[in-house]
Amino acid sequence: MRNIAFPNLLKTLREYVLMTAGLLIYSFGWIACIKPMEVAAGGGTGLAMIVSHTAAEMWGVDIRIGTVFLTINAFLLLLSGLTVGWNFGFKTLFCIVVASGFMALMEPYFMVHYPPSGDVLGLDDKLLTIILGALLAGAGMAVCFTAGGATGGTDIVAKIFHKYWGVAYGKVIIYTDILIIGSTLLVGYGLSDVVYGYIVTVVVGTSVDLLMAGSQQSNQIFIVTADYDRMAEAILHEADRGVTLIDATGGYSRHEIRIVMVVCYKRDAGHVLRIARDVDPKAFVTIASVSGTYGEGFRKLTQLR
C-alpha cells in the first residue's frame, strides 16, 4: 500500500505545484500588465477589474481586485452548487483562493511601483503591454488546466446555462465576455478601452488553446493509392508511425480500394508526405488537423483528466 500511495502523493503534489505556478503567472499578467493599462476585459478577473475600477472612480471606494475576484467566484460557486450541484471539486476552490491571494499581494506592490504611464515592464506601448499580459494570463491558465485546475468565473456561468437551457459552453463564455466588456461603456470606459478588452479576451483564449494543445497537435493523413501495401510498409519502417488500412469504394470508378491512414505529430507530417511522394507520386493525399491524440505512440488515454 505504501508503494502505491507514495507515487499518488507525488503526483498530487506535482499538480498543486503546477497549479500554484500557473496561478502566479496568471495573476502577474493581469495585475502587472493589463490592470495598469486601465482597459476593459472579460471573464471573472476582467469583471473584478471593472468593479474595482468603477468603485474607485465613481464612488471613491478602494476595493482590491483579489477581494472582488474572490467575492464574485464565491457567489458563482454558491449559485452553481444550488442549481447544478456541488461537484466543482477542491481544485477549483484551491485555484480561486490562491489566485485571489496572489492578486491581493501583487496589487499593493505594483500600485506603489507603477510609473505615471502605468507601464511596469517598460515596453512604452499600450498594445504590446496588454498583449504580453494576455499571453501570460493565458499561459498561466493553460498550466493550471493541465494540472486539473480551473479559475472559475464565466466557466461556472456556462455550466449553469448549459444545464438549464442547453447552450454550448463556448457560446456562453463568448457572449458573457462580450456583454461584460461592452457594458463598461456605461461606467466610464472609452471605446478604445473596450476594443483593447476584446483584444485581451481573444489573446487569452487563443494562447490557452495553443498551449493546451501544444505538442499534442497532430495531423491525420489519408493516402489513396493503388500501391497501399508498399506505402504502408514504407511509412511503418521509415517514419516509424503506425498505419491503418481502411477499405473503401471509389465513388466514380466503383473500384474497391484501400486508404492508408496515418496519425502523426505535425512535426512528422512532412516526413510522411515525402515518403508518400517517393512511393507513389500520383497518390491522392488529404491532411486534417487533430487537436489531441491519445493511445499507442501518443499521450496515454489514462492521462486524461
From TrEMBL:
Regions that span the bilayer: 16-33, 65-86, 93-110, 130-151, 172-189, 195-213
Check the record and name the InterPro entries matching this protein: DUF2179, N-reg_PII/ATP_PRibTrfase_C, UPF0750_membrane, YitT
Which residue range or ranges hold the DUF2179 domain?
A: 241-295
Q: Which PROSITE patterns match?
A: PROKAR_LIPOPROTEIN (PS51257)
Topology relative to the membrane, per the entry? Multi-pass membrane protein
Cellular component aspect of the GO annotation: plasma membrane
Please state where this protein is localized: Cell membrane
Q: What is its main location?
A: membrane
What are the protein's UniProt keywords?
A: Cell membrane, Membrane, Transmembrane, Transmembrane helix
Q: PANTHER family this protein is in?
A: UPF0750 MEMBRANE PROTEIN YITT (PTHR33545:SF5), UPF0750 MEMBRANE PROTEIN YITT-RELATED (PTHR33545)
Q: Protein name, please?
A: Membrane protein
Q: Lineage in the entry?
A: Bacteria, Pseudomonadati, Bacteroidota, Bacteroidia, Bacteroidales
